[in-house]
Input
Amino acid sequence: MSDFDLILTGRVVDANRVRENGYVAVRDGIIERIGEGIPPASSKERHDFEDAYILPGAIDSQVHSRSQAGQEDFIWSTRAAAAGGVTTIVDMPYDDGNLICNAERLAQKALEAGQQARVDFALYGTVHPNDGPKHIAQMVGAGAAAFKFSTFGTHPERFPRIPPQTLHACFAEIARHGLAAGVHNENDEMVRAADADVQALGISDYRAHGMARPAIAEALATAEAYEIGAATGCSAHIVHCSIGRGYELCSNHRTNGFDATIEACIHYLVLDEENDVARLGGKAKVNPPIRPRSELKAIWRHLAAGGVTVVSTDHVSWSEDRKSDPDMLKNASGAPSLEVLYSLLLDGLLLRGLSPTWAARLLAANPARLFRIGHRKGAIEPGRDADIVVMAKDPRRYDPAASGHNFVGWSPYQGLEIQHRPVATFQRGHMVFDGTQVLAHPGAGKFITPSREILI
Output
């Protein structure tokens, strides 16, 4: 047989072990062999990464490339992804001026994203409240990887609330197709009442956001989503959880035999209210809010116990003017973080004495299962796409404007000392980031859809 196309050597990490003297051999964009010790003798391209970690490329479960019209789009979100070791993004359906709520819109978004994307991408679909489940089957046929709903009404057209009776009908239809239903988990009535109380008190500083969206609002919506999943047989996924209680609810439902999953955004594992939100103001405004440090510690305990399914960014590159209002509640919610997702999680794991195998699990293996794309993605294993990131220790203070790979020059992580960074990213065996430059051109990414074998 001819030479391999690519051989990588270093500390090869999968979801279960670290091969300290490992290698990965790639042919035709697919991982063909992994092992420990002496690698195959010949290949067209070879890289020795010594003691750096060779990990599966991340699947970022929550990206908003088009939340602000005329802003980032896929040409920039996937550039930041490649520079951060993210080889597949799963983009949310709440595009500015275009709710992705039928097959035609989903197909058009896939076409447009395919012309821009530098790394692979999958797409969430959603529904309009007036339509209920009637377009779900067609969106499955168009390649939706999952469906997203909100129990809170951010905007009646762009980001609408889906009431529980409609959620139930939609979950039942999604269950027929074997996909997951993700939920933005904040109880609408509780948030609106709390928000009114905060404004009546005249509180507008950093405290206002957490007070306006109390933990109980999140817990109630989380329980609602899991109970609807249990009633319909649908895989129920919480797309961001900022409170320890949410992970307990997920664990309880899993113990009872239900397919319940839960997502920790990276900001809930790095930032806290009393130190970081107080310092950053609107640049640290996300929904649900970043909580006190006690909740950050609780989430890390749940992660170490196996209670976190995936870690994501909830990435969105708002223009800085939409994140700088002194009135906390007037700022847009969300922050850019694709370039540092892998770095922040790996640093956090190693700081707490946890194995880097957790990164492979939370950023690759588990997201691949969640979106039913594990036939191609999510692991350094024979037969999978050779989507790989190499993480080396290289301490530096993060400057989001320095690399040139981000659409905006601000970040809530600006000035944070990061210990590890990507020194190479490979997509299907081709280097798309060399540690400095993104090498992938727009259009290099592919639209990734669930395996037809898992769909009912």
